[in-house]
Amino acid sequence: MRYDLSLDVNPCAHCGRLEYEAWAWNGFTWNLSPMMDLAFAEVPEAGGPAEGARWTQCLRGLSGEDAEPLVRSALQAMSASPDEFRALRPSNGWGTYSGAVRMLSEMLDAFQGWPEAVVVIR
After folding, report:
1. What residues are paired with 113 via a beta bridge?
2. Which of 24, 32, 84, 104 could be 6's S-S partner, Cβ–Cβ 3.0 to 4.6 Å?
3. pTM for the full predicted model
């Protein structure tokens, strides 16, 4: 299973049609959910640890401006304890710590550039 994440500009509230997609990361592996959930567990707005990809729940539908501090906190948590996060690397090899950090870093850059856009996770 995978997630497709995007930062959408001016989505229509009725039909979902976009003005355009400012940023996208397609195919982020679900296998990294335990690692990502741990990173977002330290984010007060995320509501603490939970099962079932909590990290997607706390970002979905937020503006880039509102999501930026959450992602920044998650990246700080990952940087502070890289060995703890690397230990959560999936045994099947689908996903890495460095891949998760790279995706979150790109996401953070996009949020800074498009604060009014909306986070979409499919």
Report:
1. none
2. 24
3. 0.82
Say whether 81 sits in a helix, a strand or coil: coil
Bridge pairing between strands 118-121 and 20-29? unpaired
Handedness of CA 69, 72, 73, 74 (dihedral sign): positive
DSSP 10-71: S--TTT---SEEEEEEEEEEGGGHHHHHHHHHT-GGGTS--TTTHHHHHHTT-BHHHHHHHH
CA gyration radius, the chain: 14
Q: What is the pLDDT along the chain (122 residues), one digit of tens a residue?
A: 777 888 888 767 777 676 767 787 777 788 888 999 999 886 655 444 444 467 888 888 899 999 999 999 999 999 999 999 999 999 998 999 999 999 999 999 999 998 988 888 88
CA 60 to chain CA centroid, Å, is 9
